[in-house]
Design a protein that fits this description.
The complex is a heterodimer of chains A (110) and B (155). With 110 residues, chain A is of the alpha+beta class. Helices cover 22% and strands 30% of the residues of chain A. Chain A has three helices and seven strands, in the order H-E-H-E-E-H-E-E-E-E. Chain B is built from three helices and ten strands, in the order E-H-E-E-E-E-H-E-E-E-H-E-E. The chains are: A alpha+beta (110), B alpha+beta (155). Chains A and B meet through loops of A and strand 5, helix 2, helix 3 and strand 9 of B. Chain B: One of its GO terms (cellular component) is molybdopterin synthase complex.
Chain lengths: 110, 155
């Protein structure tokens, strides 16, 4: 739908301005699944293309689109983005290509 | 005589093999310390009347090691006299009565190492991305530490 010409208009100056079509700049992130979330998703890791600027809740919704069975644990998980915990909510994430995003169900170490 | 004996060290290991109390305590022993305090977490054979056959652990290994390093940093801020800290956690299958975690801390006097060990295990349970699956006779269950602030949250 988008021609290469339009992509050229989104240069460095476009960063920080609100995307007209809601997160049109995307990047590939490495999504990791653990414990119950790995069972529900059916895999332990994959690469997904997601908007670079996105709230943590929107990121969850992107992932649930790919793995609808994850919806049942929405109220019990947090993310770890670049190995820092992030609650599902309004927090704005600025993702870089290759970033690790992990689904973290309630922990039980020790 | 090596000056490196003075340098406080953190020994952090996640491994699939059986843990050794001797190995972990020897890591933290120091001629400058009069106390070594230990915590050993072992697997119980029952939960709410159900017989536990075994436990299985998995971890987000790189982040777990980073979080344990943060715990060690916190320990040294709170108890500056602590010398060495060792945290070994087992992954994979852990049979009943075997250790899933061993924490050892050395300090010149006993109060600091005793308090630091308690802080380590309590904080590990709240913040380190490791998961335990309890296997019963007919089913299994992913456990959730009560210390985990995002468990059982209702929105």
């Amino acid at each position: 739908r988008r021609s290469p010409g339009r992509r050229r208009r989104r240069g460095p100056a476009a960063e920080g301005s609100s995307p007209r079509d809601g997160g049109s700049m995307r990047c590939q992130v490495s999504v990791l699944y653990f414990a119950r979330s790995a069972e529900l998703a059916g895999l332990r890791s994959e690469t997904l293309s997601v908007p670079r600027e996105i709230t943590s809740l929107q990121l969850w919704e992107e992932i649930v689109k790919v793995h609808p069975r994850l919806a049942v644990i929405r109220d019990q998980v947090v993310f770890a983005v670049r190995q820092e915990y992030v609650l599902l909510g309004d927090q704005l994430l600025v993702l870089q290509p290759g970033d690790e995003v992990a689904i973290i169900p309630p922990i039980s170490g020790g | 005589m090596e000056e490196s004996e003075d340098v406080p060290k953190d020994f952090i290991k996640l491994k699939f093999e059986k843990l050794s109390v001797d190995e972990v305590s020897e890591l933290v022993v120091s001629p400058y310390c009069g106390a070594v305090s230990l915590f050993i977490g072992t697997t119980r054979n029952n939960f709410e009347g159900k017989k536990v056959i075994r436990l299985e652990y998995e971890a987000y290994t790189s982040m777990a090691e980073t979080e344990i390093k943060k715990i060690c940093r916190d320990v040294r801020q709170k108890w500056p006299s602590v010398k060495h800290i060792a945290v070994h956690h087992r992954l994979g299958v852990v049979p009943i009565t075997e250790a899933s975690v061993i924490i050892a801390v050395s300090s010149p006097h006993r109060a600091e190492s005793l308090e630091a060990v308690m802080y380590c295990i309590n904080t590990l349970k709240a913040s380190v991305p490791i998961w335990k699956k309890e296997i019963y006779e007919d089913e299994y269950s992913w456990k959730e530490n009560k210390e985990c602030f995002w468990a059982n949250s209702e929105k």
